[in-house]
Amino acid sequence: MSPPDHALPNRLSVPTDGERVWRNHMIMAKLGATPKGGVCRLALTPLDIEAHCLLARWAEARGFTYDLDAVGNMFIRRAGSEPDLPPISSGSHTDTQITGGRFDGIFGVLAAFEALEAIDDAGIVTRHPLEAVVWNNEEGSRFYPGCMGSAAYAGVLGLDRVLDTTDRDGIPLRREVAALRAALPGAGTRALGAPIGALIEAHIEQGPILEAEGKTIGIVTGMQGNRRFQVEVLGEEAHAGGSQRRYRKDALVDAVAMVTALHGVFHDPEDIIRFTIGRFEVSPGGLAVVPGRVFFTIDFRHPEQSTLDRLGDQVEGLCRAAAKSCAVQVTEISRSAPVAFTGAVPDGIARAAAAHGYAYREIYSGAGHDCRYFADHCPTGMIFIPCERGISHNEAENASPGDIAAATQVLADVMLELAQRR
Amino acid sequence: MSPPDHALPNRLSVPTDGERVWRNHMIMAKLGATPKGGVCRLALTPLDIEAHCLLARWAEARGFTYDLDAVGNMFIRRAGSEPDLPPISSGSHTDTQITGGRFDGIFGVLAAFEALEAIDDAGIVTRHPLEAVVWNNEEGSRFYPGCMGSAAYAGVLGLDRVLDTTDRDGIPLRREVAALRAALPGAGTRALGAPIGALIEAHIEQGPILEAEGKTIGIVTGMQGNRRFQVEVLGEEAHAGGSQRRYRKDALVDAVAMVTALHGVFHDPEDIIRFTIGRFEVSPGGLAVVPGRVFFTIDFRHPEQSTLDRLGDQVEGLCRAAAKSCAVQVTEISRSAPVAFTGAVPDGIARAAAAHGYAYREIYSGAGHDCRYFADHCPTGMIFIPCERGISHNEAENASPGDIAAATQVLADVMLELAQRR
User: Fold this and answer.
1) Interchain contact, B392 vs A284, CB within 8 Å
2) Has residue A2 got a pLDDT over 60?
């Protein structure tokens, strides 16, 4: 991204409809609405399939086609004049966390759909096809790991491994993908890994920086790498009244010591380290029973591979040292390298934001997103907008209609420009 | 209990059948048997009702009658020659913890039933009626609090409050008591609080002392008092990748600090304090979500009221001081005073154990038991036997056929002696 380019006006632009894209958000937010104002719409549950069906109906009303691939990713397409060119694609996900909000994921899908509608309204036939994409199971809160659909599409995860993944009730993803296809009889078939010409993902920041600095648009320069672990602490159940402290093997006591030791190491004065223990399950959970087992997860993220290596390698040792009376098993369950976004997409976002007079800045993504897997394959990038108080993965998550409209406008401009490129 | 008495032979004794009482344990252990060799038979579930029905069939085969009271306690009766005298009663409970063992509770029921059978086999008509009692919901693992049936019988808990108690699925105890009665059409009705002449409860120690000292019989001299609390920690859910540490309100981080602070205070060199955090629930439990809420329970027991007062009163302050970014609410949910057992029952146990040559010692009960509520109303006491490695509330809980036979013999002798007293 070269500074002089930013100042140039964007040569191609069609007006997007900020009211329409906001209205679509409010309609979608009803699918899985929670009493606290959030959304619970776990991947490929009936509610999430309903969200896919709603998008399909909107697509049909426009004359757009839509395809599904073997892992349940959905691609809504507006044809271009040169059918052999790869699509210029944009999208995110419809699934949410258990206590999710109204914008995480769905904003990227609806902004992309609005870009297709706006370009369609303007009557422009682009060279490349345009696509709004719904990646399956981004959150990973029903099927582990997250970003599963995009990872499978990009060849990072094998097809059978993905389809055999089960949720906590033992239901395999394979069954839910079949249910999605059955619910969308009008869907065509997309080959897993078919080329994509460029990929742009619009998303809420999920952090406080843009709001704090009064910026409307974040041009994402990269994404943290991460390492994830699970820790199992095995002690011995005992009677709360009868068993003496000196003989106890209290799994909670040892697990609490591990959490304390880990938090003592995983922080830095710059506050760049992201370290979260999100699942922490104590068994059997009886009021009068000394806990015999604790299971917890560790999510550790950092922009630098060297820090991921140095600190991540200490997890097992810290847990073992903190275990006083229990056995402990530490397993690393996934790792991803940091990603950098450069070139046509971030450059185009900067030009479009500047052309419309939106305040913007470069920003690093703390969260992982589906487009991470495409940075090595095609021009890739992300547009962030502020989210209120930085709160996300929370029912109180909020974003403003104005910021959503602005980012949608930027997205449509970037897609149009890339779709006309020779 | 005066030492000279111990040496006197017991004047009344009938032989109990150790093989029969062991066989009955193994039959009962099948109702709710777990793959790890334990038992899961929560109060008034179909499995627990089946246990009551099995006892009813055994009673009918003997010509014993059985009654139910309004809260689901069951009283199996062998009539005496003087129907106006109150029964000499013994029993415990059939329900278990979620990860329960084969002996906790059911041993006291089956030992009492064997005492009735042995006295019946001997053809002795006692003056007082004899009873084997099944107190409802001792464990409190389905309906909170535990010892609910005995507390209601003794008037410590009100009838409506008990019957309106619901389990985690919202099912009220009232409905399950009705189901028990429907399953036992042959049951008579016992008035709640009807006088009891004496109450003896046989139980596994649930601690390591008898085993370590090679004693067969523990003469229980008293029971710890307890105070129970629940603590709710309210933070704010946030994205694991986006949210900075300095802005987080991580409920797990604060709850872990509370657990550490509490454990720093609740211990003593004599290892008499019993302090257990058994339930510890972290929400929402997503791998990539900073926990917004933690709920945990505290079970604190001690033989001395002054220590219960002094330390228990520190719980709230310790939790508040440890909360760095979250709100905390501490609620005391129950308290019981320490109990002492003296007089006819412990004296009788000592005489019977001495007469049969069983090694015995006085012992304090760490756990709470149903008979605690009767110590002020009638001669009351408990017989303990060793349990392997002191392990209880655990599927690995174990006791020996020899110890069970010995304690059953002692129990039968004590019941017979009390039932013939003028």
Assistant:
1) no
2) no
Contact A252 B280 (CB under 8 A): yes
Task: Tell me how crowded residue B359 is: count the other CB atoms within 10 A of its CB.
Answer: 13
Give the orientation angle of helix A18-28 with respect to helix A106-121, to 10 degrees.
140
- B276 and chain A in contact, CB less than 8 A: yes
Please check the confidence at residue A420 and state whether its pLDDT lies above 90. yes
Smallest CA–CA distance from B261 into chain A, residue: A256
CA distance A23 to chain B (A): 25
The answer to whether the CB atoms of A238 and B393 lie below 8 A apart is yes
The pLDDT of residue A278 = 97
Q: Do B243 and A205 touch (CB under 8 A)?
A: no
- Judged by CB atoms within 8 Å, which residues 184-213 of B form the interface with A? 205-208
Contact between A216 and A407 under an 8 Å Cβ cutoff? The reply is: yes
B243, burial (CB in 10 Å: exposed 0-12, middle 13-18, buried 19+) = buried
Half-sphere exposure of B229 (CA within 13 A, CB side): 24
Q: Would you list the DSSP string of B173-212? A: HHHHHHHHHHH-TT-EE--TT---SEEEEEEE-SSSHHHH
pLDDT category, A11, cuts 50, 70, 90?
Answer: low
Provide ipTM, 2 decimals: 0.74
Place of tokens 């994402």: A220
Q: How far apart are CA A380 and CA A154, in angstroms?
A: 13
DSSP string, B171-182: -BHHHHHHHHHH
Cβ B276–A290 below 8 Å, yes or no?
yes
Distance between CA atoms of residues A176 and A49, nearest Å: 9
Mutation site for B-interface testing, chosen from A93, A276, A295, A395 by largest number of B Cβ within 10 Å: A276
Q: Summarize pLDDT for A251-263 with one digit per residue, the tens.
A: 999 999 999 999 9
